[in-house]
Write a structure and sequence with these properties.
By secondary structure, the protein is an all-beta fold. It has no helices and 11 strands.
């Protein structure tokens, strides 16, 4: 059974940095895409960044401040967050998508890690 476990969240002052990690277990296959989403209180979950086959995609609100990367050997995805703002406060969720030939696509979610940015 595939599991995604996030780590690295916490409390930081505005302007500070955090690095989130998400390690996948339960599979030896590589994911076609991995990414990060976030959900602030009272808001819908939104995409933060994704990475697939070396291609990255970012929400406009984090471009130039956040950087996503992955280590395929470790089946781990990272999110480096710099110049954090109070509006970045949210629960951050790791996401991974795997396409299996003749079986379809499978999407997995982590349990979430809290990021709080104080002003």
């Amino acid at each position: 059974q595939v599991q995604l476990v996030e780590s690295g969240g916490g409390l930081v002052q505005a302007g500070g940095s955090l690095r989130l990690s998400c390690a996948a277990s339960g599979t030896s296959s590589s994911f076609n895409a991995m990414g990060w989403y976030r959900q602030a209180p009272g808001k819908q979950r939104e995409l933060v960044a994704t990475i697939s086959s070396g291609s990255t995609n970012y929400a406009d609100s984090v471009k130039g401040r956040f950087s996503i990367s992955r280590d395929n050997a470790k089946n781990t995805v990272y999110l480096q967050m710099n110049s954090l703002k109070p509006e970045d406060t949210a629960v951050y969720y790791c996401n991974a998508k795997m396409i299996i030939l003749f079986s379809g696509s499978f999407v997995y979610w982590g349990q979430g890690t809290q990021v709080t940015v104080s002003s």
